[in-house]
Design goal:
Subcellular location: Secreted, Cell wall
GO biological process, one term: carbohydrate metabolic process
Strand content: over 45%
Distance between the termini: 32 Å
Order of helices and strands: EEEEEEEEEE
Number of helices: 0
Organism: Parasponia andersonii (Sponia andersonii)
Radius of gyration: 15 Å
Structural class: mainly beta
Helix content: under 10%
Keywords: Cell wall, Cell wall biogenesis/degradation, Glycosidase, Hydrolase, Secreted
Main location: secreted
Number of domains: 1
Amino acid sequence: MSLFACDSIGSLGKYENEEDVRGITVKNCTFLKTDNGIRIKTWPGSTPSQATGMIFQDLIMDNVRNPIIIDQGYCPSGCKKQPSRVKISNVHYINIRGTSSSEVAVDFMCSSQFPCDNIHLYNVNQKHTGNGPATATCLNARLGYGGLLSPRVTCH
């Protein structure tokens, strides 16, 4: 299945026995002063599933608070204190440029039980609109890089 839209992917794992998410494409979009740009979010304590084969390409972030984010601990209130069991893999960020209204422009918080795998960033260039450079945070992800990358992403 392929979708051509500007949107977030989530709340994966909120309900039992959800089907896998595969083959999502988001391209040629501009995000203007939004809270989130490219976001994948999953709930903790979810039943096992996967989200794979996603391409985010030729996107512009204009003063976006969270331009690129994977949040596998999404929980507005009262959630299980367990890692997400949604396996995120084969995600490609290609030609993503623009500005972040927050210091953290790239934020990958992946599951400790099922780390994100095969996450690729190619020609990603995000600037912070405030004082200082844009930064990145990363936890439990296996990343690949190519072309220009700003900010630099180092995963733990």
